[in-house]
C-alpha cells in the first residue's frame, strides 16, 4: 500500500516539475537557449496571483488570467531587452549569463516589493481530493489539475507547432535560423512569440506549483527551476512529450529514492540516475540523436 | 622585446598585471591605505581568480560548458581542511603543512576530475553541462552527510549522524555533516594566493601554447577533423578537464584555509557558485585569461562596494551584470565600440603624423 | 577578431580601473572616517549588526534588523547609553560565511564598538574567529551552533542547539506526550542537525522510542510526503520538527492532506508560523514548540514591544526580532555596567563588556532576569508554547 502511495506522491511532485519543464523545453527547442530566469518568472506569476486574490479580491480564475497576461508581457520584455541583443553574439554562453543576471534581478525586485517573509499561497484549485481504496490513498485536487493541465498543454503545444503557421515558423527557426530568415520568416518575431508562450506557461506553472506546495518566497522559483531543467534534459531537451515524461520520472525517482534508499541522499540519487540515463542515452529519453557531419 | 613572439608578450602582460596589482596592494597596505574590508577580500579574490582561470581552461580552451566547477573546489577544500585539522599537532610548521594541504587538495580534486571526466566527456554541449551540474550537486550532498571522527582507535566514518560514529571519550568529530569542518587554521595569505595565481597562470598559459594545448584547441574547433589527423580525443579532453579540476581544488584549499568554518552550502559550493565562476569567465571573455582575472576582481568587489546602497545592492548588481554582458557581447555594441576605437586611433595617427 | 578582443579587454580594464579607483577613494574616506571618529567619537556609540537580508535566509535577517532598529530607536529616545546616542549599522551577509567576514570588515572600517550578530550559525562561527583575533565584543541574537560562542568575547541571546534538543526530549519524556516519536530534520542545515542529534542522544534516557528519523535537504524541501508517510507507517504519536516554520508550514499542510494528525513538536524556529500570510491556522492547531518568546503574552514589556513593532513594521515580531531586541538592550546594559565610553577602542570596549556581561541581568522580552555565563550561554528557562484556536498559549 505504501508503495502505491509513494508512487502517487511521486507523480504529484513530478507533474509540477513537468509543467515547469514544458516552458523550459519550449524555449530551448526554438531559441536554443537555457533560460535560467524561467524559474523566477514562475515566482513572479505566483506573486501576481496572490496579490490579485488577497489584495484586490479577484476571483481565482481571473487572477490566473491576469498572471498569464502579466508574465507574457514580462517574458516578451525580458526577451527584447536582455536576450535579443545577444542572439547573434559570438558565443551562445553570453545569453546564458544574461539570463542569470535577469534571474537575480527578478529575485531582488520581488524581495523589495514583497519582502522576504514566507507567504502561504491559498490553493486556487477548486477540485476536491480523490479518495481511493476506502480513504487509504488520496490524490489531491492539485495533482489531478496539474496532470490534466500538463496533458492539455502538451497536446495543445504539439498541435500548435504541427498545424499552425506560427508553429511551423518556430520549427523552421529551430532547425536553421538563417534559412528560415531567407524564407521570409520573421525570426525575431518568432522567438519573441516563443518567449511569450514560455512565460505564459510559467505563470500557469507558478500557480500550480504554489497551489500544491503553498509556500511563496522570492526564491521559490529557483530550485524547482533547476530541477525542471534537469527534468527537461532527462526527457530530451527540446522535446515536448519528453518534458512531461522527464518531469514525472524525476518526481517519482526523487520520492522513491527518499523512501527506499536514504532521505539524506535524495539529491545524490536523483542526479545519479540522471547521469546514468545520459551516459546510456546521451540525448535524453526522447531526444533525437543527430549524427554529426563533417 | 622585439624578439619575443606575440603570444609570449601577451603572456608577459598577464603576469605583469598580476604582479603590478600585488605590488600596488602591498604598498597601499603598508602605508595603511587599505580598508579592512579590502584586506579581508584579498585572499578570497585570489581563490576566485584561480577558479575563473581554471574554468576558462575548460570553457575557453577545451570548449565544453561545465556547471560543476564548485564541486571540485569543494573536494579540494574539504580534503585539505581535513588534512590540516588532523595534522595540526603532527606538523606544527605552517608552511610545510599548507604545502602538503595544497598538494592533497589539488590531487583529490584532480582525481575527481578524471573520475568524472571519463563518463562525462563522452557527452556534448548542454548535456555535458547538466551532468557536470549533477556531479557538483552530488559532491555537495555527499559532503553534507559525511561524518568523520577520530579517537584513540583511529578514524570512524558514518553517513548518518555524529552519534553513530561511536567515538570514545576524548574523540573528536572532524567532519560534522552539514556543520562541516570548524577551526581550520587560517593559513592562507595574500602572498601565497598571488603566488598560486601565478603558478596557475603559468600552467594554463603554457598548456595553451604547448603541443597538447594545440591538440586540445583543435578538438574544440573541430572534433572530427582533429580525430581524423590522429589526435587522441579522450586523452586530451581528460587532460584539460582534470588540470582544470585540480586547479579548482587549489582554489578550494585557499578558500578553506581562510575561513574558520567550512560548510557545503548551496551558496558556496552549489550550482550557484559554479554559475558565478562561469559568469567571471564569460564576462571576461571566453578563452581570455586576463579577462577572467579582471572580471573576477570586478564582480567580487562590486557587491561589496555597493554596500552603501543597502537594500538595493543586489538589484543594482544584477542590472550592472546584465548591462556589462550586453556591452561586452552584443554584436551591435561591439560594432559601435570598434567604430569608436577606430575613430580614436585615426585621431591618434593623425596627431602623430602632425607631430612628425 | 583580435581587435575586438583587445578593445573589450581595454574596456573591461577601464571598468576595473574605475572600480579600483572607487575602492581606493572609499578606503581613503574610510581612514578619514576613522580619523574623524577620533574627534567626534565622544558623541556616539556604534553598534554593528550582521545578518542575511537577501537570499533564502533573508526572513531571519530582516526580523533581527527590525528588532534591533526598534531597540536602538527606543534607547536613543530615552537618552542613549549613559547619555551617549547610539548608531546602528546593519550589513548583509547573504547567509554566507565569506560574505559575513566582509560585512564584519566593513563594520570595522566604520568604527564599530560592539557587534550584534551574526544571525545564522555558520557565518557566526567564521565571524567569531575574526572578532576574537581583533578582540571585538560580539553578541549573537540567534546563532545557535555550539561554536558560535566558543571564545570569551562572544555571547548569545538564544538557546544553543544541543540545549534545545535536550530540553525538547526531556519535556516530551517527562510529560509523557508520546511513546512513539518520529523526527524529521534538515540534514543540510547546521541548526536542524544540531538539535536533532542532541534530541536523539537524550531520547535514550527518556521513556519514549524514536520510531522513524527522516531527513530532507535544502535542494528537496518542497515535498515531505515520504517522511510523513514513514512516520505514519511507524505509528508515531508525535513528530519532532526541528526546523524553521517556512518548511514546517508545508509539512503541516501535507500531513493534513494525508490525514495524519500526531502531535507536532518544534523548536524556536517554529515561531512565526502564525504570522505567515495566508496560512491556514487550523493546520497548526495543537502544534507545540519550544520558544523563549510569545507575542500574545500578558507581560507588559512584551505587549509594548509587540505593539511598537507592529506599528513600525506592520507584522507580528517573531523570536528573531525578540532576540535582537533583547540583544541590543544587553549590549546597553553591559556598556553601562562596564562604564564604556565612546572614545575607547573596540578592544578596550570588549574587555570591559565581557566582564560586565557576567554581572548584568536584564528583563527582556525573551526572559525575565536574563543573565549570562562565562561560556557565553544565556541562562533562561525555555517555555513550551502550544497553538490553540489559532493563537499561542503557554503550556506549564
Label this structure with key terms.
heterotrimer, A: 294 residues, mainly alpha, two-stranded antiparallel sheet, two-stranded antiparallel ribbon, 11 helices, 72% helix, B: 356 residues, 3-stranded antiparallel β-sheet, 14 helices, globular
Question: How is this structure best described in words?
Answer:
With 294 residues, chain A is mainly alpha-helical. Helix content of chain A is 72%, strand content 3%. In chain A, the strands form two sheets. Chain A has a two-stranded antiparallel sheet. Chain A has a two-stranded antiparallel ribbon with strand order 2-3. In chain A, helix 1 (2-31) runs antiparallel to helix 10 (240-261) and helix 9 crosses helix 10. Chain A is globular, with a radius of gyration of 19 Å. Chain B has 356 residues and is mainly alpha-helical. Chain B contains 14 helices and five strands. The longest helix of chain B is centred in the first third of the chain and has 27 residues, at 94-120. The mean pLDDT of chain B is 89. By secondary structure, chain C is α/β, with parallel strands linked by helices. Chain C folds into two domains: 41-159 and 301-380, Rossmann fold (3-Layer(aba) Sandwich), CATH 3.40.50.2300; 162-291, Response regulator (Rossmann fold, 3-Layer(aba) Sandwich). In chain C, the strands form three sheets. Chain C has a seven-stranded mixed sheet, with helices on both faces. A five-stranded parallel sheet of chain C has the order 2-1-3-4-5, sandwiched between helices. In chain C, strands 11-12 form a two-stranded antiparallel ribbon. In chain C, helix 8 (245-257) links the parallel strand 8 (238-241) and strand 9 (263-266). In chain C, helix 2 crosses helix 10 (319-337) and helix 3 packs across helix 4 (121-134). The model of chain C is unreliable at 9-14 and 16-41 (pLDDT under 50). Chains A and B meet through helix 4, helix 9 and helix 11 of A and helix 5, helix 8, helix 11, helix 13 and helix 14 of B.
